[in-house]
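Quick one, tokens below. Sequence please?
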């Protein structure tokens, strides 16, 4: 099995990092203009939709039709790379603004959760890329909806002041289980794809 070109993965990471700027700018404007007054809509729904949509859009525009996106497993690699690029840059901003303690905590939760959301997104991107015509749009929609739902749940848990820590632990365990399951399924799809292409 050929490894994915490092240059393309690095580009995916960089694209993810660069999209942090428009996302944070939009979030800043919305907050300062008080365009969304309800805390749940602002901190949970709007934030989740904005971040996952931009990650999804980056993959769709710049990577989905790329010649090196040539097997189902690639979706996971690119999804994780874009998400890690975004999470890394976001964490740098928090480090500069709030110090090392906040950055360390964010490295444990938001950075890992973004990567896992990216795995789920990438899994469905890979399914869409190599699915039969009648399934492509369905999987493409799932590549946005599935990580978005997970992100909304994650952000919702963080709003439970005082006992969010008791909820986030089982959710993160579930997220890791789900992501690893998708990785195994993607690997199975890859083997099947290579077999159909007479490469193994």
């Amino acid at each position: 099995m050929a490894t994915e070109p490092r240059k393309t993965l690095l580009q995916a990471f960089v694209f993810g990092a660069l999209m942090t700027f428009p996302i944070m700018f939009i979030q800043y404007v919305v907050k300062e203009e008080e365009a969304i007054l309800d805390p749940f809509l602002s901190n949970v729904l709007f934030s989740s939709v904005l971040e996952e949509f931009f990650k999804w859009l980056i993959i769709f525009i710049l990577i989905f039709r790329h010649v090196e996106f040539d097997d189902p497993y690639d979706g996971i690699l690119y999804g994780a790379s874009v998400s890690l690029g975004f999470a890394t840059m976001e964490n740098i901003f928090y480090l500069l603004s709030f110090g090392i303690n906040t950055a360390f905590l964010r490295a444990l939760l938001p950075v890992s959760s973004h990567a896992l959301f990216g795995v789920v997104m990438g899994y469905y991107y890979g399914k869409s890329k190599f699915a039969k015509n009648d399934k492509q749009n369905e999987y493409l929609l799932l590549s946005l909806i599935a990580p978005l739902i997970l992100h909304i749940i994650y952000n919702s848990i963080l709003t439970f002041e005082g006992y969010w820590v008791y909820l986030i632990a089982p959710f993160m365990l579930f997220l890791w289980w789900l992501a690893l399951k998708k990785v195994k399924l993607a690997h199975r799809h890859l083997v099947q794809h290579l077999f159909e292409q007479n490469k193994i």
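The chain has eight helices and no strands. The CA atoms of residues 102 and 108 lie 10 Å apart.
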